[in-house]
Specification:
The chain has 109 residues and is α/β, with parallel strands linked by helices. It has helices at 12-20, 40-49, 65-74, 86-98, 101-108, and strands at 5-7, 25-29, 55-60, 79-82.
């Protein structure tokens, strides 16, 4: 079965419409030089509008690990993706795997 992900949503309405149309995953861009960049607040709004079982992916480019950490704890992302050197991809994936759900919940409280 083919899965569909659309990246670069900048508002909740468009992301919800895509989800209702059957998209499997939506992508949010956290690269500030991109015209599709979203803030953490906007990302939270987009994710909150999505129905269950729609995967949420964050895209990071040359991101500081603290930014990735903040986004992952503030926005309910399922995956993160890194578009630069192999070392940055390893850092991104390590942060995604090392943050516990409990730690992120504690930060939100």
């Amino acid at each position: 079965m083919t899965k569909v992900k659309i990246c670069g949503f900048t508002n909740a309405e468009n992301a919800l419409q895509a989800a209702l149309a059957g998209v499997d995953a939506i992508g949010l861009v956290f690269y500030d030089k991109s015209p599709r960049h979203v803030s953490i607040d906007v990302a939270r709004e987009i994710v909150a509008a999505l129905p269950p079982f729609v995967n949420r992916v964050g895209l990071f480019v040359n991101a500081n690990p603290s930014l990735i950490d903040e986004v992952l704890c503030e926005v309910a992302l399922i995956h993160c993706s890194s578009m630069e050197t192999r070392l940055s991809v390893i850092v991104c994936n390590t942060i995604c795997l090392s943050l516990s759900q409990l730690e992120c919940l504690q930060r939100l409280i």
